Amino acid sequence: MFDFGLRIRELRESRHMSQESLGRRIGRSKPVISNYENNIKYPPLEVLISIANVFNVSLDYLVGIEKKDALYINNLNEMQTNIMKLLYEEFTDCNLKGKELSSRQQKILSLLLIEFLK
């Protein structure tokens, strides 16, 4: 059975965030966050959306429908979005253990560094 409170706690702790700081970001108190994490209370939809936005996860992931965490690129510019898509395409299911990067992979990583270090 899915543990909603544990999902919030894991997301919060993985980002080194206190219950109080999460509460401030979504307009709720520390005790309310504690109630969510202990499955005493469940947040309404607008709060679920706020929590998903804070942690940059889908609502499906937050409530246990989607099993894998996802990467959202909504806040990136067009060049950054294209680089992230190239990264995904090039490195998905790519086993690099003991291998050198191809020239294409090196170029993609170079683009990434140049763009994100601006």
TrEMBL record:
Superkingdom per UniProt: Bacteria
Presence of keyword DNA-binding: yes
Gene3D superfamilies: lambda repressor-like DNA-binding domains (1.10.260.40)
Keywords: DNA-binding
CDD domains reported in the protein's UniProt record: HTH_XRE
SUPFAM superfamilies attached to this UniProt entry: lambda repressor-like DNA-binding domains (SSF47413)
Name of this chain's protein: Helix-turn-helix transcriptional regulator
Organism: Ruminococcoides intestinale
